[in-house]
Amino acid sequence: MAESAPPLYHRSNSFTLSPADGRYVLKFKVLVTDGIDAEGIAILSGDPQLAVDEFPTLPAAELIERIGDYDALVGRSATRITPELLRAAKKIRVIGRAGVGVDNIAMDVATELGISIINAPAGNTVAVAELMFGSLLNILRNLSFADRTMRAGEWRRSELLGGELKGRTLGIIGLGRIGTEVARRASAFEMEVIAFDPYVPDGRFQGLRVQRAESLVALLAHSDVVTVHTPLTDETRGMLGRRELAKLKPGAVLLNIARGGIVEEDALAEALASGKLAGAALDVFTKEPLPADNPLRGVPNLFLTPHIGASTLEAQRNVARDVCAAVRDTLLGGELSRSINIATVEGVRWEQLKPALRLSERAAAVGRAILATQGNRAVQRVSLRVGATHLGANEALLSAAAVGVLGGVVAGDRLNVINARTLAAQRGIELSAVESAAGTDDDLIEIRISAGMQEIAVAGTAPATGPVRLTRIGAFHVDVQPRGTLLILTNEDVPGVIGRVGTVLGEAQINIAEYHQARLAQGGDALAAVSVDGAVGEGVRAELLGIPGVRTATVVTFDR
Ligand code: NAD
User: Fold this and answer.
1) What CATH number should be reported for the domain holding residue 134?
2) pTM of structure
3) Which residue among 172, 253, 335, 453 is buried most deeply as judged by most CB within 10 Å?
4) What CATH number is attached to the domain comprising 517?
5) 39 lies in the same domain as 187
6) Is residue 20 part of a domain?
7) For residue 177, how far is its CA from the centre of ligand 1 (angstroms)?
């Protein structure tokens, strides 16, 4: 019985004739839509391995009809990535969203199908920060009113006594990417800056010369201007409601250019109507587009913009370049660091993790195959134990182990580290990471698999350079590369077995790359881990099982 382990990340296999040199090159098809900036598209079309088709935003039905041809899709929020579309996208490996929000993507379905989702969270920070100051200056100088009355033929100069930024205290809620850019610019305006962000360490505050507010209430009480730059989460939804707005200084200004729903719209309207707040700006709303009859449109001193925070030429170019390069790297190199629907490993590029992932997957495939040879095919549990080197990568390594366990078992060619855990959970397989005992090798990765009444642990090491090696199979110490085809034999420790195995393989023209024999005690149980170059078919396996003393023969085939 041959067990095959799939690669961590599959490639589509459309081949196209290269016009450059007449050779066939692997070519992926990318559908680009929603008016992605040309500089981003140039990154994709500049690669000879990628064929790019650009369409304006397509009606849902037409997109569903076309999508089956493509390996990747790059778009913006106008294209809704529905479960139906994802299921029709039989070849798709990666979807790039040129922007931050992924509310338009059925993320659970994409993850279940093993489709990598990439967004571009960083390209528009400056655009948003600048809009915040534009809106604030507009409010403090009443520019919209000035412009409106001038156009109406009026000259209301005496009503236009504004205020300055210099010397005012700016309170930033959320000192992330955008909050940081806002803080930098606020210093240039000679504002005092305080911020509330319990998730950011002191060092960031010090680096930016921003004073830390110990609580949201403290920030509200001390700020002349409050600006929100957090994501919309369960914690931040309604974070600024009636009670919080009441804590603001009289005459304060409030801006929300982050996400609708963080500031309660009714409470804001009341605070403006009562004169408690001098002004406010909203670029984002609970319901977008803002309905024509929404009462916010009539609230005094409220500056409204239609979610244009990221709408600058530069931001669109930045996010397009960023997401297109990431989509290219995912397609061509299997680089998954940018996928937002995968277990992330802080500070480590996916590339660096590859040896450890390969070992985890292959050790799991070996364990699964051995149990299957013993008649236990239904894996119930997979647990992972790692040494210090790999501690931070537990989640990703478990995903890789799930790939190893499910390879050749689940239908579909899209099993990968993105969807393996979901698929395992759907099959009732428990995945867990267990604490390492003291004295565990720093480099160790051990996968323990339970099926039926049996359990087996397969361990190995994955150095940063050099091949990964299996160092233990069950109780037996081995030293063999899990590559090509791995043959695992259990036998009685009697003379002649090694020679006969060599003869059977030699007669079948199968070259032995490594042969590692291990035994627990003289004359007791023995295990041979034999790495061979060719395939080992059922006939050869039957011959091996016919050798006196050989009890089991497991064949595991790896993709390379
Ligand atoms: P980010 O993830 O870099 O920063 C968010 C910060 O909020 C983090 O530092 C986090 O620690 C902090 N935070 C989270 N929960 C908090 C809480 N309860 N209290 C205080 N701080 C909290 O995100 P970013 O890129 O800076 O984006 C900020 C917001 O701007 C997001 O909501 C994003 O969707 C929005 N945005 C809007 C537009 C637009 O067009 N208006 C464009 C881009 C981004």
Assistant:
1) 3.40.50.720
2) 0.73
3) 172
4) 3.30.70.260
5) no
6) yes
7) 7
